Amino acid sequence: MNKEVTHNFISMFDEPNKPLWSKIKPDLSTYQLTGVMTLKKSNSSSTKKGNFFISNDFLVEVENKMYKRHIDLNNIILENTNKLATFKLSRNKKSIEFTSNESEFLQWFQLIKKYAIQRTFNEDYKLLKVQGQGNFAKVYKAIGKDNFTYAVKSFEKKSFKNLILERDALKLEISIMRKIQFPGIIRLYEVYETEHNIWLVTDYLEGGELFQYLRNQPQGFNEIQVALLMHNLLNSLDYLHQQGIIHRDIKPENLILRSPLNASDVCIADFGLADYYNPEGRYLFKRCGTPGYVAPEILQEKNYDYKVDVFSAGILMFIMLSGQSPFQTKSKNELVIKNYNCEIDYTVNNLQHKITPEALQLLQILLSPNPQYRLTAKQALSHPWFVKCFTPVFQIPAPQLFIPTNVIPPFQHFADIYARSPIMNQLLSQSISSLSLSNSSNVTPLRTQSNSLQVQNLQNNKIEEDHQDFEVILEEVCQINEIMKYSINTQRRQPPNQLNKQI
C-alpha cells in the first residue's frame, strides 16, 4: 500500500521568513542531552566541531560555556543520511549535517524526531488497512520497523483548499499533541511528510470508539461503570487544562477504548479543534464544537475557558446514565436552539428518579448554563458522587484510575445507584446519531474561514423555534459535505467491526 516515493520537494511546513539558526536566546529550562558534534553545511565541504545540547525543542550551540545560537526543532526536516552517525536538519532549502559520536547518534536522533518532520515514512512503516476515512484524510492500521502496531492518520495535501489556514491548523494540532504524554490521551509518536501526504503516527487502540460501545449496550450502565469512565475522562481533561490546552470537541467518537473489554479505559483523541487557552479569546478558530455537546457560551459567542470541555463531559455522563441526549429534538435547528439556550431535560427516561441525588447534582453542576457555577475538571473529581460510587465497592477513600469494569460486583447488589435504560440500544442511535454521529446529519463544525458553527449573533437568549430565518442559519451551520474538516468521520452506518477508528 505504500507506493509514494519521497524525493526533494518543498515542505508544507516551511516558513519563508524563519531562518535555520537564531541568535535570540530562548527560554532554556531543561537540558536533555549534551555532546560534541561536527557540523557541515550542505553546500560546503568544510567542517567544524561544536558543543551542543537539547533543551525542550531547541538544539543549542555553546561556545566557551556561553550560549551562541540555536535551531528551533519544531517542524524542521530531519533526515538520517547514509553517512555514519550523521543526520541532516533542513529548513527553507538550507540544511546542515551533524555527525555525532556513534554511541550517541541514536539519542540525538530520537530526541530531535519528537519535534521534527521526517520523510522516510515508506521505509519506516507498512500500511495494513484503512480504519476510518474522512473528506481528505484517512486512518490506517500500520506496522512499524519495530514490529509494533500503530494508527497512522494521513492527510492528503491536494485536499487542502486553503493552504495557509489548513497548514496553520495542522501545525497547531501537531504542536498540541507533541506536548501530551498521559495514559488517558492518545499519543503522537512521529510526524512524516512525503510529496503528497502528511502522516501522523499515533497509538493503535483496539477498543474502537466509545460511540460504538454505547450503541452495543442495551442493558444500560450502572453508576459505578459511569463513574469509572467519568473519573478517567475528567482526570485526562484536568491534565490537558494544566498544560494550557482546551480540546473543544469531547464526544463519543473522540473517545477511544484501549480494549473492548474495559469501557472505562478511554483515551481522548482527535485534537483537530483543540487550542491553547487564551484569556482574551484569541484563537485560530474561536467558535467550534459539535452541536449537542458544545458548551452554550461557545454558541452564544461569549468568551470561554477550560470549562467548555467539562460541559461536554457532562453531556456524555447524561447520555450514559439516561441512554439519550439531554436535548430532545426532532431537527437540527431545534437542537441548536436548545443547545444554545442550554435547555437540559432531566426527565428523559425518568432520569432524575433513576439516579442517585449525588449523580443528579453533579450532572446539574457540569451542565450549568453559567460557566461560573460549573466545576473545573479537578473540582469535579472530588465530588461526593465518586466517593459514593467507589468507596462501598473498593473500600478506598478515592477512586483508582483505569480499574477494569469486570472487577465491579454485579449491579444487583447496588440497586440504589443503578441507572438502567431498558431502551438504550433502541434510542441511542436516534438520540445521538441524529444529532451529530451519522454521516447524513453530521453537524460537526468544519474547518473553513473560521471553523465556527456560524451561529448568528442572536440578540435574545430565548429564540423562537419557528423563526423563519433559522433555516438560513442552519444552512451555514450544517455544510456537511461541502467543507473540509480535520476530524476523521468514519461511515457511521457500517457494522461495528468496520468502525474501529483509532483517531
Task: Describe the overall structure.
- By secondary structure, the protein is an alpha+beta fold.
- The protein folds into 2 domains: 33-118, PH-domain like (Roll), CATH 2.30.29; 208-498, Transferase(Phosphotransferase) domain 1 (Transferase(Phosphotransferase), domain 1, Orthogonal Bundle).
- It is built from 14 helices and 20 strands.
- It has an 8-stranded mixed beta sheet, covered by helices on one side.
- β9 and β10 form a beta hairpin.
- α5 (223-242) runs antiparallel to α7, α5 (223-242) crosses α12 (384-394) and α7 (307-322) packs antiparallel against α10 (357-366).
- The two termini are 20 Å apart.
How many independent structural domains? 2
- Please report the first level of CATH classification, the CATH class of the largest domain: Mainly Alpha
Low-confidence sequence ranges: 393-503
Radius of gyration: 24 Å
CATH topology of the largest domain: Transferase(Phosphotransferase), domain 1
InterPro entries: Prot_kinase_dom, Ser/Thr_kinase_AS
Pfam families: Pkinase
Domain Protein kinase: 125-386
GO molecular function, one term: ATP binding
How would you briefly describe this protein structure?
The chain is α+β, with helices and mostly antiparallel strands and 503 residues long. The protein is 27% helix and 22% strand.
Secondary-structure map with pairings?
Elements: E1 33-41, E2 47-55, E3 58-63, E4 66-72, E5 77-80, E6 86-91, E7 94-99, H1 105-113, E8 117-118, H2 121-124, E9 125-133, E10 137-144, E11 149-156, H3 163-178, E12 188-193, E13 197-203, E14 208-209, H4 210-215, E15 221-222, H5 223-242, E16 245-246, E17 255-259, E18 262-268, E19 275-276, H6 296-299, H7 307-322, H8 332-341, H9 351-354, H10 357-366, H11 377-380, H12 384-394, E20 418-419, H13 424-437, H14 470-477
Parallel strand pairs: 5-8
Antiparallel strand pairs: 1-2, 1-7, 2-3, 3-4, 5-6, 6-7, 9-10, 10-11, 11-13, 12-13, 14-17, 15-20, 16-19, 17-18
Helix pairs in contact: 5-7, 5-12, 7-10
Domain Protein kinase: 125-386
GO molecular function: ATP binding; protein kinase activity
InterPro entries: Prot_kinase_dom (IPR000719), Ser/Thr_kinase_AS (IPR008271)
